[in-house]
Amino acid sequence: MPDLIRHLVDLTNAQSVEELWSLQTSKMNSFGFDRLIYGFTQYRTTKSLGDPQDWILLSTQTPAYMRVFIDCGLYFDAPMIRWALANSGACSWSWLKEMSDANKLSDRERRVLEFNRKMNVIAGYTISFKSISPRAKGAIALTAKPGLTQDMVDEMWAEHGDAIVVMNNVMHLKLLTLPYFGNRRLTKRQREVLEWVADGKTTQDIAVLLGLTAATVEKHLRLARRALGVETTAQAVLKLALHNQMFIMDDAA
Questions:
Q1: Torsion of CA 84, 77, 73, 149, to 10 degrees
Q2: Are residues 52 and 151 in the same domain?
Q3: How many CB atoms lie within 10 A of CB 2?
Q4: Does residue 203 form part of some domain?
Q5: What tens digit of pLDDT does each residue of 25-37 get?
Q6: 84 and 209: one domain?
Q7: Which end of the chain, N or C, is less surrounded by CB atoms within 10 Å?
Q8: Intra-chain end-to-end CA distance of the chain, in Å
Q9: Is 39 exposed, middle or buried, given 0-12, 13-18 or 19+ CB atoms closer than 10 A?
Q10: pTM for this structure?
Q11: Cα(72)–Cα(66) distance, rounded to whole angstroms?
Q12: Residue 205 CB burial class (10 angstroms; 0-12, 13-18, ≥19)
């Protein structure tokens, strides 16, 4: 079985986000990309990518890099994120030099490039995934190993780029079918009462089904809303569904 097909089969058979990500990071490392950042949001607006706690965010970057780039908000001025939001497909980071040479980067964007240079994030590619919703966007940044120049990466990409794009597209699509918990994690009971709500049951119905009092059911719903960062139970059900956490096997949680 050709290597590409074997990897795609492995991706499509992955049973968890963790397994999927491990397969993909190992494969990308074989092409010379040792630091990856994948991000996906379903809450994008014209001025924001939504609450970071609602993103799907996976990374093999160093904690020191992620603290500044994500936690301190440096990503907001990253020129490759600007490119990814406006485009789909793959882009060589040589685009950054072209934009810089043409004086088309802002001072804040240049600050991101300087930070990247200090962190040895110099050569690589960004893949921006197509989306049917204007509020959804996903992308992955593939950072080349230290010592690899952009010219070297571009040469490798000329031979393997199409296969790399396919692998990442399949990984992205598969990931969107898997339960993702991130920072919005519910208890088993909180998830259970929301599932019964999604099934059309009232608070009193749920109390009878689970052998609880109505007040206890309301407590679980309130805590679930708080954990998910929403105001209504309907919003909680929707957010849980968007992260594929509805009606899942207990061992997936």
A1: 70
A2: yes
A3: 8
A4: yes
A5: 999 999 999 999 9
A6: no
A7: N
A8: 33
A9: buried
A10: 0.85
A11: 9
A12: middle
